[in-house]
Design goal:
- The structure is a single chain.
- The protein is of the alpha/beta class.
- About 40% of the residues lie in helices and about 20% in strands.
- The protein contains 9 helices and 7 strands, in the order H-H-E-E-H-E-E-H-E-H-H-H-H-E-E-H.
- Helix 6 packs across helix 7.
- It is globular and about 50 Å long.
Length: about 270
């Protein structure tokens, strides 16, 4: 079986509740984003890598869209209609934002961190530009609910803190996702294409536990004061969303306050789908 067929079989073997969550979370994630945006996002901020799925914002918010390339290039690489994509007014790497420290009320980065060779570099820069009490909305695809990632495993925090080269991740992606083992027909051509086009594939994959470990590392090891206000995730949900606040003062090392709230939000939203 090819990857698409294996993912279909994988989905069929899930229990009925897990299949329900997998199916409905793909169609309702915008409602969850809208709910969280209305509750937490205010003021002047940026959305990084919005593409064709910008986060809905309330009238109290003003957003600047940031991306690494113009939308026409992005659309061509991923076979998208550029007319459905936002127009970025700032072009830069996601972890090299041209904004002063402590200057923004919010940063939104949905489905960006997995495309970064060094996720910690991105998180650090997004938090750097936030004002004290500023909000970071972090959306991450769940590797259990993604046909490109379901056969891959999250890396350890040790790996993420000392990331291997981009070329190693490209090779892994071509082998596992594109199903072209090294030495097979087509491997070198695909690998060369990705490298020449500077493709930002899913360098890393995540589940909820690996995201929390990453955030804990940011707070305790890197010493960046941040508080988890809300989390939304299901084990087989399409998207995991974490709402964080850049805090004042010293870093606390106790467990995340927002994890219990994650279950409450998940269940209340889930019941609304039934």
């Amino acid at each position: 079986m090819n990857r698409v067929q294996r993912y279909a079989e994988y989905s069929r073997r899930l229990g009925p509740l897990a299949r329900f969550v997998l199916r409905n979370s793909h169609t309702h994630f915008r409602e969850i984003r809208s709910h969280l945006s209305e509750k937490y996002v205010r003021g002047n901020g940026i959305e990084v890598g919005a593409g064709d799925y910008p986060m809905p914002l309330s009238p109290q918010s003003t957003v600047t869209y940031v991306d690494r390339v113009p939308r026409e290039i992005y659309a061509k690489q991923y076979h998208l209609d550029p007319s459905y994509m936002v127009v970025p007014s700032v072009l830069c790497e996601a972890d090299k934002l041209p904004f002063p420290d402590d200057s923004l009320d919010f940063v939104i980065a949905n489905h960006v961190i997995e495309h970064l060779e060094n996720p910690l570099s991105g998180l650090s820069d997004w938090l750097r530009v936030l004002k004290p009490n500023g909000i970071l909305v972090l959306g991450v695809p769940n590797r259990r609910a993604n046909e490109y990632d379901f056969e891959r495993r999250p890396e350890s925090i040790e790996h993420l803190a000392h990331c291997s080269s981009k070329l190693e991740h490209l090779r892994e992606f071509v082998e596992i996702v594109d199903e072209l083992p090294q030495g097979s027909h087509g491997f070198e051509e695909r690998f060369r294409t990705y490298r020449e086009e500077d493709r930002r594939i899913h360098f890393h994959v995540f589940d909820a536990q690996s995201v929390l470990e990453l955030l804990t590392h940011v707070r305790t090891t890197l010493g960046i004061p941040v508080t988890l206000l809300r989390a939304f995730h299901f084990k087989y949900g399409f998207e995991m969303i974490f709402v964080l606040r850049k805090s004042h003062g010293s870093v606390k090392t106790r467990a995340w306050d927002g994890v219990r709230n994650a279950t409450l939000l998940a269940h209340s939203s889930f019941l609304g789908w039934m």
